[in-house]
Amino acid sequence: MAWIIQIREQRQPRLPVNRTRAAACGIPIGSSAPRGLGPQGMERRGLLKAAVLVCLLVLCSGRDLTIKHHPSTTIYNSTLAKTLAEYAAAIYTADLTQLFTWTCIRCGDLIEGFQMIDIIVDVENCLQAYVGFASDINAVVVVFRGTQDNSIQNWIEDLLWKQLDLDYPDMPEAMVHRGFYSAYHNTTIRDGVVNGIQKTRKLFGDVPIMVTGHSMGGAMASFCALDLVVNYGLDGVKLMTFGQPRIGNAAFASFFKKYLPHAIRVTHAHDIVPHLPPYFSFFPQKTYHHFPREVWVHNVGLGSLKYSVEQICDDSGEDPTCSRSVSGSSVQDHIYYLGVSMHAEAWSSCRIVMDYSRLRYEMDLNGNIVLSKQPVHKYMSSIW
């Protein structure tokens, strides 16, 4: 069992502590302890004093102490989330030379020291991903790029009307968004990413695989993580996405939860994208449904008492007390996560920007442009 203790501010005058309020905490103020306490009695008395002190601090500050219970199976680490948000932001770097050599402006702070293995660019479909090794978390990191800034508005409008239109293979009643599914499964990006993972594990051993992405990149990351578990039988696959849209129905969400029970979807305040495509509660079997588990980052309080909380939601995927409790109307909230900007540096086209005098690249058998530290052809013939 895991317990999260939160202090919630109350805008009310401070009151002197009295016996009545202290008794509300179940603590007998002013009662005298019997003399001659033994070791056990002294220990109990010490614990009682500590409890009194905590309760008095809460009462004197005008705050309520609330305790929320969350199942111990929930795995969410705030520092890891910030780290992965920085990885997800780095892929929006326009210059692939800077990204590949890990010298970009976004390539420092928590993610400094990352070892890039491959950058994969599907030019025809304007898709991009990278694969490398993060020594600080001892994992392969796989990142998918999201929608570019110039197309976000059109993309959002399209999602408002997008219907479930594809049966997920070998899963009865599971339906998914054809566009997101196809962006990963029916393009050349999939083989490029899988080969990058293979190369990284050959170099660094059988380490965990952390898959992430923002926006549409989060949708692709979700299909990738499921693919690695279901179709490649890999262990140690973990998923954390930022501001991703819904990608399937309730049957698919249940299927997803079975294979990736510790997946995390981070949402931010009024971000519009996690609300799309729409969820209709009166058609539960025919509507889109998020897979669990959501972590909703939002501000609470007013004025100087405002602070950010990371609320761990229930395991339904559609917790009505989390992001669904507010209107999804903000594009601005979509491009900032945990203080990290997800703005694309260049958005005018899907052109390749790199210094050809400093960087060499190859074409894989599928036509992807692959920037790699290992010769591409060595890894094209077999995948596990």
UniProtKB/TrEMBL annotation:
Residues 141-278 form the Fungal lipase-type domain. Pfam families: Lipase_3. Transmembrane segments: none annotated. PANTHER family: ALPHA/BETA-HYDROLASES SUPERFAMILY PROTEIN, FUNGAL LIPASE-LIKE DOMAIN-CONTAINING PROTEIN. Signal peptide: none annotated. GO terms for biological process: lipid metabolic process. This is Fungal lipase-type domain-containing protein.
